[in-house]
Amino acid sequence: MSQALLAGISRTTRPQSMVRRFLALDAVVTGTNGLAYLLASDALGDLLGMSPALLFELGLFLTAFAAGVAWLASRRQPPTRGVKFVVDANLLWALGSIVSLVGWIDPSTAGAVWILMQAGTVAGFAALQWAALRGATAP
Question: What is the pLDDT of residues 58-81, one digit of tens each?
């Protein structure tokens, strides 16, 4: 991914700011998703064809994860290891979403579409964060 594209997306040419902004965006989206799962697990379970208990547990995890990502985003210079952990976790989440869809859960059509969209979004965050991190740590 080119630095010009990243600069356009993040509206800054400062690599460290790009990392922080992509982490912050991830934290907001993930936190919102987690809170929705926590607060509306029954209704979302009906819509997505998934267990409300599973959604509630995922909501707990996502909310905690989002808080950690937000903390990283708040650092003047997020630690490289922390950002790499977020990238890896996002990639694992995306892969796990696909695997669970194929072999573990049987959601409604809306649920299957949601899972695929979520996997794509999370993989996109990982790609943006990784590219921004590479730009920030380049010599």
Answer: 999 999 999 999 999 999 999 999
Per the CB < 8 A criterion, the answer to whether 59 and 69 are in contact is no
d(CA 54, CA 37): 9
Q: What residue type is assigned to position 139 of the chain? A: P
In whole angstroms, give the CA distance from residue 117 to residue 6. 22
* Alpha carbons 13 and 7: distance in angstroms, whole number: 5
Mean pLDDT, rounded, of the chain: 89
The number of residues in the chain equals: 139
Select from 96, 82, 106 the least CA-distant residue to 20.
Answer: 82
Residues whose CB falls within 8 Å of the CB of residue 89, separated by 6 or more in sequence, listed in order? 65
104 — phi, psi (to 5°)?
-130, -50
Domain limits, the chain: 3-137
Residue with tokens 């808080």: 67
Alpha helices in 40-79 (DSSP H): 41-48, 52-74
Paired tokens of 138:
């380049």
Which residue has 């899972």 as its token pair?
115
